[in-house]
Amino acid sequence: MKLVPFLVSMLAAALISPAALAQGKSCDELKSAIATKLDGKGVSGYVLEVVPADQDAGDKRVVGTCEGGSKKIIYSKESKPKT
């Protein structure tokens, strides 16, 4: 299952273009664009969160920055409730 984190990081790198980062897009706009691309690739069961740039992402992946680098968008898989 080491392939999954690799694929997620490759997908994240492909989603974030240097032009998008340089423009300082609004977080809602960038988050929506990332979600559209993930959905288009058949990815499901994920959560995108906008957090301050200085907040530790922990085990989640940073997939974009927005609002001039003051915030970042982090990606994580939804955790399934334990039954």
TrEMBL record:
Source organism superkingdom: Bacteria
Pfam families (UniProt xref): DUF1161
InterPro entries assigned: DUF1161
Residues in the signal sequence: 1-22
Keyword list, A-Z: Signal
UniProt protein name: DUF1161 domain-containing protein
Organism: Ideonella lacteola
